[in-house]
Amino acid sequence: MGTSIHLLAATSSSKSGGFSVETLLLIVVVVVGFYMLLIRPQRRRQQQAQQRQNSVRPGARVTTTAGLHATVVAVDEEAGDVVLEIAPGVEVRYMKRAIMQVDDPGDEPEESEEPEDSYDEAEEQEDYDEAEEQDESAETEEQDSEDSETVSAEDQTAEATARSAGAAKD
Question: What is the pLDDT averaged over residues 6-21?
Answer without folding.
Answer: 58
